[in-house]
Amino acid sequence: MHIVIAGGSGFVGQALKQRLLNEGNQVTILTRNPSKFESSERLQYVEWLTHNSQPEIQVEKVDAFVNLAGESINGLRWTKAKKERIIQSRITATKEVLRIIENLHPKPKVLVNASAIGYYGMSETETFTEEAHSNAHDFLATVVKKWEELASTAEKWGVRTVYARFGIVLGKKGGALPFMSLPYKLGVGGTIGSGKQWVSWVHVADVAGLISYAIEQSDIQGPLNVTAPEPKRMADFGKMIGYVLHRPHWFPVPSFAMKALLGEMSEMLLCGQRAIPEKALTSSYKFQYPDLEAALKDIFA
After folding, report:
1. How far apart are CA 1 and CA 296, in angstroms?
2. Cα–Cα–Cα angle for 97, 115, 74, nearest 5°?
3. Contact 207/170 with Cβ under 8 angstroms?
């Protein structure tokens, strides 16, 4: 298959690229700076989102499109400017993906558009499968809803569209884990906030695996929770980091301290949601890391 990835040079994009190449696919990555990368027989880099770039002229016979592009939500604070970049980067990139798809003949069979379980809002008591509806109006939920609504435009061209709702992605080279594990490495790790909030985590290898699976399985459409089968309470999540790193779990971080440090962004760690990957579990997808201990041992090896 020929698969085009927008945002393929990032943390998840690199894992997905390697997965798709290992499976024998041809991969094209859209990037603002293709000269920084080396192309090969089954991997090419094509310029996009620059003045007069027309990637649709350079790609042909596209079977699947994956859109991962957007400003990272990680950082010390969600300033007004940061929040605007988070929203606008996703809107701009997705509009360009749609423009490219509109100009491709034939059309790709599927668009997998990145999203997030932030769609569901925050809860310590509810469980969210892909069938759950959202009444949330917080910042992340608002961003995700706008993102998915725009991506749904591809359906009018007969393109099967999947909204890959990522949980907390764990990996060696990015995501939230380096920030969350640093206090343990310094010997001052402990429960963040109440410890009762849910962490719906997923190993980056399973993020790549689930995206690849969604591309191949024609019956997967709409929302897809990209999370491991067993979410953890924050207290248990932290204890497992300490156990794997052989560090103590003893120094609690109160909610007010996180709010003072991170502002509105602290909601990502102080609140949460229990998201279950029901579509993956009821189909034939096999998680590489369904267990948190095994996932962390792989990452920290």
Report:
1. 32
2. 105
3. no
Half-sphere exposure of 130 (CA within 13 A, CB side): 20
Q: What digits encode the pLDDT tens for the residues 194-213?
A: 999 999 999 999 999 999 99
Distance from C-alpha of 179 to C-alpha of 135, rounded to nearest angstrom? 30
- DSSP one-letter string for 31-89: ES-GGGS---SSEEEEE-SSTT--HHHH--S--EEEE--S--S-SS---HHHHHHHHHH
| Neighbour-count burial of 94, counting CB atoms closer than 10 A to its CB (0-12 exposed, 13-18 middle, 19+ buried) | buried
- Higher per-residue confidence, 261 vs 101: 101
**169 φ/ψ angles, rounded to the nearest 5 degrees:** -85, 125
Structure-token match 């932290």, residue found: 238
Entry pTM: 0.95
Nearest to 16 by CA among 169, 230, 180: 169
CB atoms within 10 A of CB 296: 22
Burial of 182-191, coded b for 16+ CB within 10 Å and e otherwise, reads ebbeeeebbb
pLDDT surpasses 80 at 150 = yes
Determine the Cα–Cα distance for residues 53 and 56; give it in Å rounded to an integer. 9
Q: Kind and range of the H or E element at 293?
A: helix 292-300
Whether residue 261 has pLDDT greater than 90: no
